[in-house]
Design goal:
Blueprint: H1 3-11, H2 13-28, H3 32-44, H4 48-60, H5 68-80, H6 84-96, H7 104-116, H8 120-132, H9 140-152, H10 156-167, H11 176-188, H12 192-204, H13 212-224, H14 229-241, H15 244-259
């Protein structure tokens, strides 16, 4: 890249956008080397999105050997430059200790900054961190707010988390119906833990009408999805409370949905 080309890239935003679009197209087509050849001079010139993409390439080991130290360097620069994807991936590096010292508190800061810019994966993660107090003080209203934002964009983990928040009255009044509604949203999208909790809700009649067939159906789905010991315990109880005809119908529904 010539001195004139570098100068034009800094001064003409439309030129930069065209180069970034060309690089993204190459990346999408699997031409990682070409994409990196375009991003690298832009990243060195200080363009945050290009820096973010360079960092992601080193983080994933696509087009280059995986190198967490180089990834962290580029992602920190991108994050400080205001790129939301860079902020999210820099937060991941801080959380995992990839290429930098592990720092959960700073990770939470950067996840929230990315979420504030509309990054939905970051919103999902900061919701979880605020719920459990992972790297930041527990903040149930904040956890709920970010979970609702992520759930609105289809994140099933956030939907299941909202079910737990309403079920356990975490920063809000206990609302079994709202808990069951959110578990249902996540369960229908294949979230095994939410399927377990929805099955348990149908088994007990909490937030939904008691229905042994629906209870057993969702618990069978959860078991098939690897939900673990919690599902196994509820499943044993659901089978004990269901008549043979109800067990057969629940098994039919579960098998049909698992096959689709």
């Amino acid at each position: 890249m010539s001195w004139l080309g570098d100068t034009l890239d800094r001064l003409v935003p439309a030129r930069v956008e065209r180069r970034l679009a060309r690089a993204l197209g190459a990346w999408t087509d699997g031409e990682f080397g070409l994409a990196l050849d375009i991003w690298a001079p832009l990243a060195r010139a200080g363009h945050p999105r290009a820096q973010s993409n360079m960092g992601a390439a080193f983080l994933e080991g696509k087009g280059v050997e995986r190198d967490h130290a180089k990834a962290a360097t580029w992602l920190k620069a991108a994050a400080e430059g205001g790129d939301s994807g860079g902020q999210r991936n820099w937060a991941l590096c801080l959380y995992e200790g990839w290429g930098t010292e592990q720092d959960h508190a700073q990770s939470a800061v950067w996840y929230e900054r990315a979420a504030e810019q509309g990054d939905i994966d970051a919103a999902d993660m900061i919701s979880w961190m605020k719920l459990v107090g992972g790297g930041c003080p527990q903040d149930y209203p904040g956890a709920r707010r970010w979970a609702e934002r992520a759930a609105s964009e289809g994140r099933t983990g956030a939907m299941a988390r909202l079910g737990d928040i309403h079920h356990n009255a975490l920063g809000t009044a206990r609302d079994p119906a709202e808990a069951a509604r959110w578990w249902g949203e996540a369960a229908r999208r294949g979230h095994a833990e939410a399927q377990t909790m929805l099955g348990a809700a149908y088994l007990a009649g909490k937030g939904v009408a008691r229905d042994p067939v629906e209870a057993l159906h969702w618990l069978l789905r959860a078991q098939a999805g690897g939900a673990g010991e919690l599902a196994v315990g509820f499943l044993k109880e659901a089978r004990a409370h269901a008549r043979p005809s109800q067990r057969a119908e629940a098994e039919r529904r579960a098998a049909l949905e698992l096959a689709s």
